[in-house]
Amino acid sequence: MIGYLEGQLLKKEQERILLKVNQVGYEVMLPGFVQQALASKEAGEQVELYIYYHQTERQPKPVLIGFNLEVEKEFFQSFISVEAIGPLKAVKALNMPVREVARAIETGDVSTLKRLKGIGARTAQKIVATLKGRMGKFALIRKEESGGDRAGSEDFVQAVFEVLVDQLGHKASDARRMIEQALARDPGISTPEALFDEVYRGELP
User: Fold this and answer.
1) Is 79 a residue whose pLDDT tops 60?
2) Which of 12, 64, 80, 136 could bridge to 200 as Cys pair (CB 3.0-4.6 Å)?
3) HSE of 183 in the Cβ direction (CA atoms, 13 Å)?
4) Is 79 in contact with 130 (CB distance < 8 Å)?
5) What is the gyration radius of the CA atoms in the chain, in angstroms?
6) Whole-number Å distance between alpha carbons of 132 and 140
7) What is the maximum span of the chain, computed from C-alpha positions, in angstroms?
8) Mean pLDDT of the region 168-182
9) Cα 65 from chain centre
10) To 10 degrees, the CA torsion angle through 37, 22, 4, 17?
11) Residues paired with 20 in a beta bridge
């Protein structure tokens, strides 16, 4: 099974690219938010993608779906767990950044979810009912346009710091700031889950 590809961009098409890896061309479908992130890439440039591999008896032809970050792929796998949302529908639907979709789910913002392509009110409500309470981590993914202190003083704090940087794509300085502000708001935090929750609350507009 293919989980990651790194190679040369050969061609862009609507909703997909052709990626050359070791003399083999892979056709990779891209959700809208990934297409936006790769908009500046030209043919011949290097591209790295985490891959969701989809193949079933009903869909015998393998489909590769690409993501900039592994955590975006993880979000996609949660998203397609919603009834009536399969991988191909999800690829077309996700036309806004994961962090925005995750925040809409966590806050029960059905109107924002209805802006996703092909998602109506009933499906938006199903998404909230299925996933609300599980999206805080994804709501902290860096904004797509960006990429000896307390942050390393305790194991659980260091664990959150590493997730923010290594998985969610934040700069180390930004991750430290987010953690410091969360701990200043609630000095009694003692678990990574509580710290994530407070960081998330602090990042809400």
Assistant:
1) yes
2) 136
3) 20
4) no
5) 18
6) 15
7) 55
8) 91
9) 13
10) 40
11) 8, 25
